[in-house]
Amino acid sequence: MLIACQKTINEQLITKQEMKDKFITLKSTAVPLSVENIDTDQIIPARFLKATTREGFGDNLFRDWRYDSSNNPIKEFVLNQSKYSGKILVGGKNFGCGSSREHAAWAIYDYGFRVVISSFFADIFKNNALNNGLLPLVVSDKFLKGLFETIVVNPQTEVIVDLENQKVSADGITEGFEINKYKKTCMINGYDDIDYLLSLNSEIRAFDLVHS
Amino acid sequence: MSIQKPKTIFEKIWDNHVVKKAEGYPDALFIDRHFIHEVTSPQAFDGLRKRGIQVFSTSRTSATADHNVPTKDQHLPIKEAMSRHQVETLRKNCAEFGVELYDLGHPYQGIVHIIGPELGLTLPGMTIVCGDSHTSTHGAFGNIAFGIGTSEVEQVLATQCILQYKPKTMKIEINGTLSKGVVSKDIILYVISKISASGATGYFVEYAGDTIRNLSMEARMTICNMSIEMGARGGLIAPDEITFNYIKGRKFAPQGELFDKKVAEWKKLATDEGAVYDQVLTINAEDIGPMITYGTNPGMGMRVSDRIPTIEELKEISERTSFKKSLDYMGLEPGSQLLGKAVDYVFIGSCTNARIEDLRLVAGIVKGKKKAAGVEVWVVPGSKQVEVQAKAEGLDKIFEAAGFELRSPGCSACLGMNEDKVPVGKYCISTSNRNFEGRQGPKSRTFLASPLSAAAAAITGRVTDVRELV
């Protein structure tokens, strides 16, 4: 059943003009942001939500942690420390709580991250990230703690994210991670939900007629 | 005849909206009501344009401008260029796609979660979404309402459906009588302080128990509104006579015989005897006092008479760093009390507490009194209808005499997208829903509390136990 549906989506997608990046594996250094409950107001403060396009939010990612009130970089903040770089952001538990603003996922993606690793994500953020080709990767508390320590000791540590086999490793330690099959297929192939929903159009119309 | 498995109200509504269930896919869920606003919709309309598709059902879609609007001189063009552009974009999109817009100056304009219920657009048994996490507010009417991102707004505009995995269910049962000075905001702040800002992540909550049953619809909305602050996908309350009486006669609600027919259907929206929840939490109403938050997430709350925990009292050692960071931001000491702490601003507003009953609570405390010197007090009604009602009841005169400023409707200082910002380092006691760093303005410091507690602080200029004034 899944394979049959995927085939339909695949066929539709060939004609789709704009596809998101496909995601299979990623090997990169990572940026450690060891704070719990990072809410979407920190990721992108409300005053920067006024744009009407999806681009450019990366400039204001973590704005108030990154710059002081005179717009000078705060040197202690991880994004301002040249020793840390890469396409992977590592955050404390309950990452992305708060507002539903998809701008948070756009900002992280626009800055250049493709994966956020944490031990726990807020629901809406997780959906928003997956809808934008940003992988929210859930690891155990123990792995997360070890990962923070490893990166701090050696910022050049390479983290390998293997989405196909659902494994993440760093410094010789590997852990499996969960992702539901549908979202995995979407990530690997660069699909989004709307393609699937549009393929259900006649069923939705029929439902609408009898649903009061 | 087979016996049906007992279901929770949540499961009944969910199952009633599944258009397609496919192995390996999330459910395609039909959406009855879609609310949109200026901040999270422009990119979604762009998506429709790129795909060359129309809005699936304009009659199920309603728009208003709320997040980014000034709360003064709303008849004039918006001064700030980007805010103005965003509101103008909403106007253009609604005109192009045929969506009804309650724009600035319209008698129905207001915060999206306030106008839906007051217009009778929000009804029991529905599925409701909006690109705003506080969509959970609508659950007070016994429906499945939750916040979504902009990609999902686009999905719903295009297909009237959303792909969702069914969340787990949690029942929060609250029984007993509330003490003097304790209102629904205190109930929800108490619940969140017990289970933390992430304690209900992955769950859809049903609030039950006789304490909830005895609350008005507006008080119930305050509770459901903050479900997201403990991570819940949403929160609902089974409808009852209080719900039906609230809905009856509202502008877009079913009228006459149709209304009676609907009520008969809505009465079936209750959790069956024997239905199983994934988690149950029971709370004794007598344990709840007037609440206040001291930290930078809504789970960091306490009874106003309590003291902030010490670092050593934290359950998890791993929480210590974030706890310390949070208190440093707030300029507060672990183990200290908040009672008597001076406040600079008082904000009465937001989708949590800007309905007419909230303004009446405030007026009841401040009538014949004056605000403390040096405290700035903003009262921002949740909608034009609330503003009109407040004036009809003379509440504006009470506020004026007290030195409070009654403004025009909008989200205002809840998130500081417009000019209504709390300055750097200042303390604001606020009836809103989030105390995140910088939420009310860069480096602002927020104490979340009920309208009663906020009003009390406005009068004394300090964090006050409202029980001393009622």
Feature tags:
heterodimer, A: 212 residues, alpha/beta, 4-stranded antiparallel sheet, 4-stranded parallel sheet, 8 strands, 36% helix, globular, disordered N terminus, B: 470 residues, Aconitase, domain 3, Aconitase, Domain 2, 3 domains, 5-stranded parallel sheet, 15 helices, 30% helix, 16% strand
Description of the structure:
The complex is a heterodimer of chains A (212) and B (470). Chain A has a four-stranded antiparallel β-sheet, covered by helices on one side. A four-stranded parallel β-sheet of chain A has the order 2-3-4-5. Chain A has helices at residues 2-15, 40-43, 63-66, 103-111, 123-130, 141-153, 181-189, 193-198, 201-210, and strands at 25-28, 30-33, 88-91, 115-118, 135-138, 159-162, 167-170, 173-176. Helices cover 36% and strands 15% of the residues of chain A. Residues 1-19 of chain A have low confidence and may be disordered. Chain B folds into three domains: 9-164, Aconitase, domain 3 (2-Layer Sandwich), CATH 3.30.499.10; 168-232 and 266-287, Aconitase, Domain 2; 291-468, 2-Layer Sandwich (Aconitase, domain 3). In chain B, helix 6 (184-195) packs parallel to helix 8 (217-225) and helix 12 packs parallel to helix 15 (451-460). Chain B starts with 8 loop residues before the first helix and ends in a 10-residue tail after the last helix. Chains A and B meet through helix 5, helix 8 and helix 9 of A and helix 2, helix 3, helix 5, strand 8 and helix 11 of B.
